[in-house]
Amino acid sequence: MPKKDKFYRHALEELQLELAGLNQWLRSSSRRLLVILEGRDAAGKGGTIKAITQSMDTGGYRIAALHKPNEIESSQWYFQRYVQHLPSAGEVVLFDRSWYNRAVVEPAMGFCTKPQYKAFMAAVPAFEKLLTDDGIILLKYWLAVDQEEQEERFAERATNPLKHWKLSPNDLASREKYAEMGRLRDAMIERTHRPHAPWFVVDFNDQKRGRINLIRHLLEQIPRHDEAIPIVKLPKLKGKPKTEHVTRKALWVPDTCGD
Question: Which of 21, 97, 98, 121 is deepest in the core (most CB within 10 A)?
Answer without folding.
Answer: 98
